[in-house]
Amino acid sequence: MEDEENSKLLEWMQGKLDEMEKEIAALKAMLKLFQAQGAVQHPQSPQQVPSAEIPVAQPRSVQAQAMEGRATQKQPPAERQSEVVPAASEEEVPIRQIIVRGNKVAAVFRKGSEVRVDVLVPLEQDTPPFKSFFVEKILKDFERKDRMKEESGQISKGTGFSYEVQLEGNEIKRITVRNVNDEERVREIVSTLNWTINRMMERSGV
């Protein structure tokens, strides 16, 4: 049974890698396009402005305007920005909805260094691979690494990663993780939880 879960996990990871490679290729193509447009629309440089016509103090302003124009053109489209996990904020903000077969099954929120997941469908904590993978290999691994950093003095006591799973009977209602200051950790938690919930729903028939 464990071999089957590992095989599915490997397939999922390979799929995510393929998606990321396609995304990177698309972003590189977009970057080249915007750079090319900036070069065409802003060919003039401060050296090309005749010094006899403009006071010496003016070229800095011309250069700044040209740089601002290029910076504005190189901003990615709004729909691209929405795909990025929002940065930490003192106000609680939704950062992801987990959708399975067209149904919203979980909502993820973030406030500062805390991430909260509200589970919206009946899923029991004993359903694999919640404990065997998500808790043991993701959450507890982060917790163990930060505990070692606390013991070695790399981070202050009490500032390490921690988590809490709130249950109603045996059903998962909420998952809260605290002291998540690494953006990569946030992305890993959200993506692995998405995979875990998909597998749980397949097993439980929800």
Helix content: 40-55%
What amount of the residues lies in strands? 15-25%
Strand order of the largest sheet: 1-2-3-5-4
Number of helices: 5
DSSP E strands, number: 5
Counted up, domains total 2
Low-confidence stretches: 39-84
| Structural class label | alpha+beta
Report the major sheet. Answer: 5 strands, antiparallel
Listing every helix as H and every strand as E from the N terminus to the C terminus, the arrangement reads HHHEEEHEEH
CA radius of gyration is: 24 Å
**Termini separation (Å)?**
20 Å
Structural write-up:
The protein has 206 residues and is an alpha+beta fold. The chain folds into two domains: 2-81; 93-204, no CATH class. It is 50% helix and 18% strand. The chain has helices at residues 2-41, 59-73, 78-81, 130-152, 183-204, and strands at 93-100, 103-111, 114-119, 162-168, 171-178. It has a five-stranded antiparallel β-sheet with strand order 1-2-3-5-4, covered by helices on one side. Strand 4 (162-168) and strand 5 form a beta hairpin. Helix 4 (130-152) runs antiparallel to helix 5 (183-204). The radius of gyration is 24 Å and the shape is globular. Mean pLDDT is 77; it is low at 39-84.
Supply database-style keywords:
206 residues; 5-stranded antiparallel β-sheet; 5 helices
